[in-house]
Amino acid sequence: MRINENTLLEGKHVVLVPYNAEHVPRYHQWMASPELQKLTASEPLTLEEEYEMQRSWREDNDKCTFIILDKQRWADPSFPEEECMVGDVNIFLTDPSDPSLAELELMIAESSYRGKGLGKEVARMMICYGINKLGVKKFEVKIGLENKVSIAMFKKIHFHVLSSSEVFQEITLGLTVNEALQQELLATLDFMQEREYQKLKNYRHEGKNSSTMPAHQS
Ligand SMILES: CC(C)(COP(=O)(O)OP(=O)(O)OC[C@H]1O[C@@H](n2cnc3c(N)ncnc32)[C@H](O)[C@@H]1OP(=O)(O)O)[C@@H](O)C(=O)NCCC(=O)NCCS
């Protein structure tokens, strides 16, 4: 999806940036891990296929992808962006006849960053973006039955069980957008800002700490 190609979402501990070609080598390294393949139900791809996937995610109108960066590390221009990557988050518009239905996918790939509240923060940020920018009204997540952490995390942010399959070893959780959810997101995400990715990137390239760039300039 091109809608977010110049969008940076700034949270408390993370920034979300569009998935670019420069992120692909690190992403490819992550997905070589059998643990992550299992947890995310993914097949390993060659590096070439991963570049192709990145291009199609950028072009296709049914998928919106952000890379999750460590905000504090990224603010320091001496770290290349690739070294600030922590994971990714996607919204998939799965039903062409109902663009208000979305599947959410989230991965904190760097294990040292798990269990610190990042998953919850990113999920809320992406839900907020999906509601406000993409018009999503219902979210679903499909999770392997063994992935207790992910199931607990999504339940914590009010997803409920829609179905569970012993055959596929998968549970589907859902969240319907309503007034109460929107109020909670407003209250818990009052720090979230949307900024221009390219402007902040240029600022970093000039060797400046991106956290010092005034918000009104981006
Ligand atoms: C699942 C995942 C997204 C959770 O993100 P995270 O940053 O580790 O989770 P958070 O620190 O935000 O924790 C959120 C909630 O999850 C639960 N949780 C987190 N770590 C847990 C653990 N080790 N055991 C049990 N529950 C846990 C808790 O309910 C926690 O809420 P609390 O801190 O208020 O009690 C992340 O661990 C991950 O990406 N893992 C690998 C890939 C994956 O499984 N992706 C999901 C595929 S469906």
CATH H-level superfamily title: Gcn5-related N-acetyltransferase (GNAT)
CATH class: Alpha Beta
Order of helices and strands: EEHHHEHEEHEHEEHEH
CA-based shape: globular
Biggest sheet features: 9 strands, mixed
Integer count of domains: 1
Number of strand elements: 9
Residues in helix, %: 25-40%
Q: In what order do the strands lie side by side in the largest sheet?
A: 7-8-6-5-4-3-2-1-9
Uncertain runs are: none
List the helices and strands and how they pair.
Blueprint: E1 7-10, E2 14-18, H1 24-30, H2 34-40, H3 47-59, E3 63-70, H4 71-75, E4 85-93, E5 101-108, H5 118-134, E6 138-144, H6 148-156, E7 160-165, E8 170-176, H7 179-188, E9 193-196, H8 197-205
Parallel strand pairs: 5-6
Antiparallel strand pairs: 1-2, 1-9, 2-3, 3-4, 4-5, 6-8, 7-8
Helix pairs in contact: 1-3
The structure holds coenzyme A (COA).
Coenzyme A binds at residues 39-40, 87, 106-108, 114-120, 143, 147-150, 152-153, 156.
Describe the model.
- By secondary structure, the chain is α+β, with helices and mostly antiparallel strands.
- It has a single domain (about 5-215), classed as 3-Layer(aba) Sandwich (Aminopeptidase), CATH 3.40.630.30.
- The protein has eight helices and nine strands.
- It has helices at about 25-30, 35-40, 45-60, 70-75, 120-135, 150-155, 180-190, 195-205; strands at about 5-10, 15-20, 65-70, 85-95, 100-110, 140-145, 160-165, 170-175, 195.
- The protein has a nine-stranded mixed beta sheet with strand order 7-8-6-5-4-3-2-1-9, sandwiched between helices.
- The protein starts with 6 loop residues before the first strand and ends in a 13-residue tail after the last helix.
- The mean pLDDT is about 95.
- The site of coenzyme A has 21 residues, from helix 2, strand 5, helix 5 and helix 6.
